[in-house]
Design goal:
Elements: H1 4-17, H2 36-46, H3 82-98, H4 105-117, H5 123-133, H6 141-164, E1 168-169, E2 176-177, H7 182-189, H8 197-200, E3 204-210, E4 212-217, E5 220-225, E6 229-232, E7 237-240, E8 244-248, E9 252-256, E10 260-262, H9 273-285, H10 292-298, H11 301-314, H12 318-328
Antiparallel strand pairs: 1-2, 3-6, 3-8, 4-5, 4-7, 7-10, 8-9
Helix pairs in contact: 1-3, 3-4, 4-5, 4-6, 5-6, 6-7, 9-10, 9-11, 11-12
């Protein structure tokens, strides 16, 4: 008789053995099939998942709970349709989480691409994928670039909704009402759309003191040399071909070994014991958004996140919770 874990592993193997047809390609621009009717379907569809609507830039309300914990029990057979593929990838993700199996760049990209193929653009799906992608080494560049595109589509929907008005549900009929032209307005705004708060928050302001680094942002490589400054955003990767020294306004010099890859997920590992202690002191001193310590920690979130999380586990507080949500994808 199989154990529960063995049954789940068997179900996962059967699930992934299904042939659901070719993997859908993701176009680099605004999705051509995402018209007003598809938007209405998207809003209806997301109610079957434990995710917020696309226009809500917020993460889950319960810290440390993996979103997949709240899904229905997985099925082992899925339809060979875009929605069937998405359901398969969500179910597989749930089983891997249940089995304590780490995601890979390939499995995360499959989940993200399945959501795009099903025309389900949802902030919380992408933020959730990022919380797994940030743990991977080497840096999952294709996943980060896919997330950037996904967030930009959502941002474009914000732009479109600001022009036409938001999607609403009629309180009497329950019918989802999409303002005419919302998708067209979003498509028009896409070239100027960024990745929302994943571009503007949770970033590190750094400088190169010695050597040079290569910043990979939105698929473009930029060489940054001594004396120059740059931002490391949550979807970026910094590659260090030869040993280099970075500078931070609060923590000082940071030595980086040749061949390193720096992301928002692993940046804290670069800190020396004295720098870690300074971060711990600032986290302990946080007293709310108006305090100097809070602002300092907010400006170094990738460095401070592990300490914030550990601090919250020992002494749950609103300031730590707010910081974690901001980094995880508020």
């Amino acid at each position: 008789m199989l154990s529960h874990e063995q049954e789940m592993a068997r179900d996962l193997e059967q699930m992934m053995a299904q042939d659901l047809g070719p993997v859908p390609a993701v176009t680099p621009g605004f999705p051509a099939r995402l018209d007003d009717a598809a938007l209405a379907t998207m809003v209806e569809l997301r109610e079957g998942f434990a995710f917020s609507a696309f226009f809500s830039e917020r993460e889950w309300s319960q810290a440390f709970n993996d979103l997949m914990e709240h899904q229905r029990m997985p099925r082992t057979h899925h339809a060979a349709t875009p929605l069937g593929r998405l359901e398969r990838e969500v179910d597989a993700h749930y089983l891997r989480w249940s089995l304590h199996t780490q995601e890979s760049a390939a499995t995360l990209l499959a989940l993200l691409n399945a959501a795009e193929a099903a025309l389900l653009y949802d902030w919380e799906i992408a933020a959730h994928v990022w919380t797994h992608a940030r743990e991977l080494e080497p840096a999952p560049v294709a996943v980060l670039e896919g997330l950037d595109h996904y967030f930009r589509v959502i941002r474009a929907l914000h732009i479109g909704a600001a022009i036409t008005g938001p999607v609403m549900r009629d309180k009497k009929t329950g019918v989802i009402e999409v303002p005419p032209g919302l998708a067209a307005a979003a498509a028009h705004g896409f070239p100027d759309a960024d990745a929302g708060s994943f571009d503007s928050e949770g970033a590190l302001a750094l400088s190169v003191l010695r050597g040079r680094v290569v910043l990979l942002h939105r698929g473009v490589e930029q060489v940054v040399t001594a004396g120059e400054e740059f931002f490391l955003r949550r979807l970026d990767v910094v590659r260090v071909p030869a040993a280099a020294t970075l500078g931070h306004s609060v923590l000082g010099e940071i030595e980086v070994a040749a061949g390193s890859e720096i992301t928002a997920g692993n940046a804290s590992r670069l800190l020396l014991p004295g720098q870690r202690e300074l971060v711990a002191q600032l986290v302990a001193a946080m007293r709310g958004p108006g305090s100097d310590a809070y602002r300092s920690v907010e400006a170094m979130l990738p460095f401070a996140y592990p300490r914030i999380r550990a601090n919250y586990m020992d002494y749950p507080g609103e300031s730590s919770r707010m910081m974690m949500l901001k980094f995880d994808g508020e």
